[in-house]
Amino acid sequence: MPSSASSGPTALIVAHGSPSDPDGQERALADLAARAAAHLPGWQVSSATLACKGRLEEECARLGTPMIYPFFMAEGYFTRNVLAQKSADLGLTMLPPFGVDPALEDVAETVLRDRLRALGWEVAETDLLIAAHGSAVSKTSRNSAQRFAKEMMARCGFLSVATGYVEEPPFLADAARGLGAQSICLAHFALRSGHVEVDLPEAFEVARFRGPVLPPMIEWPETPGLIANSLLAAHASLPAGRPS
User: 53: which residues sit within 8 A by CB, 6+ positions away?
Assistant: First the structure.
């Protein structure tokens, strides 16, 4: 494998991407990589989506031996099987996915509290809806979203916390239906996908949910710093002499 053009550490942020919009997702992820790199002087940070065939392998060849950072919300099929196997085949270190980073819970609590403060809402009088992907096959997405919801309830003390899913019950419209006028939705999605732009608005129209919806986490200003901190910690824990 060719060596990296830089003598410093390298990292590759990997997301699933969208077969229907591979270029748009690639651009969004490249922008995220650039923002993460701004927190990492001396590093090369690039990106690839699995939907763009061959992109991951090309970037690994260019970077040398990058650490693989999965920009996924759960430890599901694509992280445990597809990406883990690709990383192992290339002899690369893979980090846990973004969605299971404990520091994300700290950031989410701050984001929610700041948004409610701006709205003039009391947390104890507000319903929280966690909108997530879910899966008819695997329970990892559901379990990840439910853990996140329980943590937000424990930390913040909302009036109620509900979870709704795109691909399994309780579906989004059912979870959102009947929530009070003072409700807010946290979109438990990494990227701005068709689920965020189409499925969520359609479900909320059916449910007559009119509360504010937080953007997907790629758009949170704090996200690049979270990724950078994870990469720094992983790099510091590598055995002496092992490339990254």
Answer: none
**Which residues, 6+ apart, have CB-to-CB distance to 227 below 8 Å?**
13, 32, 36, 39, 69, 71, 98
Quick count: other Cβ atoms within 10 Å of Cβ 90? 16
**How confident is the model over 72-119, as pLDDT tens digits?**
999 887 888 889 999 999 999 999 999 999 999 999 999 999 999 999
Q: Which two tokens stand for residue 100?
A: 């299971």
Residue 4 has pLDDT above 50, yes or no: no
d(CA 60, CA 46): 9
Distance CA 12, CA 37 (A): 11
Tell me the C-alpha distance between 207 and 202, whole Å. Answer: 9
Which tokens sit at 59? 């970037």
Distance CA(151)–CA(105), nearest Å, equals 7
The token duo for 198 is: 């189409």
Check pLDDT > 70 for residue 2.
no
CA distance 75 to 70: 9
* 1 pLDDT more than 70: no
Among 157, 148, 136, CA closest to 186: 148
Please state the pTM of the whole predicted model.
0.92
Asked if omega into 170 is within 30° of 0 (cis), the reply is yes
**Tokens 């899966």 belong to which residue?**
135
